[in-house]
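EI: anyone free to look at a 170-residue chain?
SC: sure, send it
EI:
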Amino acid sequence: SFRYAAGTISLLAACVTVFFLYSYFQFENAPMKAWQVKGLVRVDKNKLITGQSLKPGTIVTTGENSRLAIIYGKIVKLIAGPDTRINITKSHIDRKTGKVFFELEVDRGVIIAVFDKSGNLEYTLKTPHGKVKSNGSRIALKVDSSKTRVVVKNGSANLTSSQGNSVSSE
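SC: here you go
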């Protein structure tokens, strides 16, 4: 019976290992790309160049007379205006469903976000004042030290303040 118990434990350990490996490999990185870089745009401490990959953990900052478009294929286009700081925190695909997830922290500046309405996309834009979640729309976001302004040009978005109040906007 000891051999039977040991066999059961090793089978359980194998199942747990397979589950963790499956969960780990279920998401694949979906690096965004820098596009239309105008003026001085920095990625971390270096100058950003057009076509450069932007992976999670990357911080992009536009200078005074600069702007930048960040794209992911044909489904995502973010346009960052002057004096904008963006931290790309998530950018991956669920291999099972094909759904793409993006999360960006915008500390300051202006962003225009254009997302495909294919419905297989979920994005979150976090600011010091709250977050904006949507599944495909056109949004303009302006962040300064006191507030975040959001304009939903078309589609819909869910806005949540850092205090926890939630509003849906169309």
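EI: The longest helix spans residues 2-26.
SC: 👍
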